[in-house]
Each structure stands twice: as C-alpha cells, then as structure tokens.
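Exercise 7b. Backbone tokens:
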C-alpha cells in the first residue's frame, strides 16, 4: 500500500487513549477525569495542524521516499532509508510497519502526577537521552561507515543525519531538544545522561548508543531525531522496538514497556506541540514498529525513537527551526517519560 496521494486518517480525538494500561495503578484511576481535559487539547492540536495544511499531498512530489519510492507499511527494511540520511536507518521513512492496533493516544494523564510528585519525584530514576547523529559526523565518513553488529545484521556505525533545505542540521536539532529535555527531567529530580553532547568527533556508533543506556540501567531511553522524507510528508512518529531475538539482539523483554513509553510520548508530544501524527508512516497512529534499528535491537531497557517532524518539508521545517517549538517538543517528550516512570 502506498501512502502517496493519500491523506492521513483523521486523528480521532474521541478515542485517543486506547485500552487501559495493565500497569496503571488504582491510585491513578481517579485521575481519569483529567483525561477528558486532555481530549480538547488533542483536538485543538489536530485542528491547528489542519489549519497549517497538515493534510499534505502525502509526498507525491517528494524526493526519495516520495512518489517514486513511497514508503509502505508493508515494505521490507531493504526499502528503507531512501533519503540516505537515516540515523541507524531511522530517518528514511521506509522499512517500517505501521501499528494500526494502537492509537497515538495515551492512557495516562501526564499533566497530573500522582500524589507525592514534586521537584524530586523522579529521584533515583535514570533517563538516557540519545541525540541522534553528531554535528561532526560528516567529517568522519570512514569511521561512521564502519559496520557494527546489531544482532540481526551488520549496519553502519552512524550516519550524518538530514537537514532542512536551508541547512539546519538534524544533529543540531537533536542536541538542542536533548538539552531542553534534560533540563525538564532534571527539574523533576531525574538522573539524566546523554549518549553524546558534541563532545566527541563522531558517533557514538549505534551499538554503543544502546550499550550506554543498558550500562546506565536506564528506566527509559529516548532517541531524538527528525526525518528526511519528501516534501508534503509531515508530522511526527515514535518508533517502537519490534520483537527481535537474534545474535546479540533480544528485545523480548523491552517490547511491551517500550510500547507503553512510546504511546505516552506520542500522545503528550502531539498535545504539547499541536502537531499531528505522521501522514506518511504509521497509518495515522504516530507509532511505527521496526526491527532494523541497532539502537533498539541491542537495548535491554525500555527505549523508543521519536522523529519529531520532517526536516525536508517546509512547513515542518518552520516548526523544527523554532526554539519555542523545540521547547514544546521537549515538554511533550518529558511529560511522556514522566508519566511512564510514574506508572512503572
Ligand atoms: Zn536521525
């Protein structure tokens, strides 16, 4: 099935929260009243997105992942990374499988923390933020092209990432959002570690990015990215680990908690930023499951990627290059993480 020329499904605000999460405690049930308050927020976000022309052409005129090689939810990973800029192959919009069973909505009222939460409510919790790529990867092509073992196969150590048409790089974007996200989580008392902070010439390689989260015994890991898809392809999506058990990769224990984490982040990201789920992958859910990303395959702790928008679409790029919008993005991701940690 091609997404080219198809409009995204409507972001149904009437059922954004899906089935109750099993990990939800009785303590949180009275908070469901807050969920109703979030629904208008999600609706407003969608309406705002629509007003901005969110239902674009579906990438019919886009390069790479656009008309000629429109990503399909049924396509194989071999078709992925059409843009050639994908971090760990994540940014190419291909090789994905839509998760039609789960909506973007969340089952937790992120704005309402359980009793006892405060500035130190995440004391002792560890969050690893993985800013995709590295601002100077492009100077080290031989190093980043070196193959590393991701369990299922060999893959490039890292990639340069994409950029907006005006030259704002994905690596710059991911670091900025990571810094904002770190500050927000530290305000909650969390221990936060970044996999890189432009403090090394290139990388880390995708396998090392995973190992950093594992070694930190992170309660949650989020890899920050922005996509390099075709013009007209818009919106965010969260990438969840698929079930992989091969070589050094064994995601069986993290698939379920990572899905919880991803759904919470997707819902809060949509509300905080006022943007809609991707109109080119994920079938309107904002959620995509992949088994070809080393950063997910090799993780032993709950982990997701988020592609915050499409840098190659001018409307999305206008958001991604706005510091105010990036703060909203960090806020949404933070709220999703906080909700996940409070529920786990
Ligand atoms: Zn990326």
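Sequence design result:
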């Amino acid at each position: 099935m091609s997404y080219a020329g198809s409009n995204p499904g409507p972001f149904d605000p009437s059922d954004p929260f899906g089935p109750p999460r099993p990990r939800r405690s009785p303590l949180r049930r009275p908070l469901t009243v807050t969920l109703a308050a979030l629904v208008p927020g999600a609706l407003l976000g969608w309406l705002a997105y629509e007003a901005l022309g969110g239902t674009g052409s579906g990438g019919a005129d886009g390069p790479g992942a656009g008309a000629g090689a429109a990503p399909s939810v049924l396509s194989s990973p071999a078709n992925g990374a059409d843009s050639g800029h994908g971090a760990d192959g994540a940014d190419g919009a291909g090789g994905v499988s839509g998760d039609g069973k789960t909506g973007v909505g969340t089952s937790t009222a992120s704005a309402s923390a359980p009793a006892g939460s405060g500035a130190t409510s995440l004391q002792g919790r560890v969050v690893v933020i993985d800013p995709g790529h590295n601002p100077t990867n492009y100077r080290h092509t031989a190093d980043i092209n070196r193959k590393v073992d991701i369990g299922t196969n060999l893959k490039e150590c890292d990639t340069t990432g994409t950029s907006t048409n005006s030259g704002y790089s994905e690596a710059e974007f991911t670091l900025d959002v990571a810094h904002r996200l770190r500050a927000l989580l530290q305000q909650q008392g969390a221990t936060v570690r970044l996999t890189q902070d432009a403090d090394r010439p290139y990388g880390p390689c995708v396998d090392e990015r995973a190992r950093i989260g594992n070694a930190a015994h992170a309660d949650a890991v989020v890899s920050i990215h922005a996509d390099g898809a075709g013009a007209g392809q818009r919106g965010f999506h969260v990438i969840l680990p698929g079930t992989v058990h091969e070589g050094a990769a064994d995601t069986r224990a993290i698939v379920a908690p990572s899905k919880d984490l991803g759904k919470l982040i997707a819902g809060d990201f949509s509300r905080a930023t006022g943007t809609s789920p991707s109109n080119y992958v994920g079938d309107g859910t904002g959620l995509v499951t992949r088994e070809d990303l080393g950063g997910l395959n090799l993780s032993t702790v709950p982990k997701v990627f988020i592609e915050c928008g499409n840098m190659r679409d001018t409307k999305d790029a206008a958001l991604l290059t706005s510091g105010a919008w990036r703060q909203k993005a960090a806020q949404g991701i933070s709220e999703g993480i906080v909700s996940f940690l409070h529920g786990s």
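Instructor comment: The first strand starts at residue 97 and ends at 98. The mean pLDDT is 78.
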